[in-house]
Amino acid sequence: MDNVKNLEDQFQARIDAGEKIEPKDWMPEKYRKTHIRQISQHAHSEVVGMLPEGNWITRAPSLKRKCTLLAKVQDEAGHGLYLYSAAETLGISRDEMYEQLHTGKAKYSSIFNYPTLSWADMGTIGWLVDGAAIINQVMLTRTSFGPYARAMVRICKEESFHQRQGYEILLILCNGTAVQKEMAQDALNRFWWPSLMMFGPPDDQSPNTAQSVKWKIKRKTNDELRQRFVDITVPQAEVLGLTIPDPDLKWNEERGHYDFGEIDWTEFWQVVKGNGPCNKERLKAKVEAWDNGEWVRDAAMAYAEKKNAQLTKAI
Ligand code: FAQ
Question: b vs e for 4-27, b when ≥16 Cβ sit within 10 Å of the residue's Cβ?
Answer without folding.
Answer: eeeeeeebeebbeeeebbeeeeeb
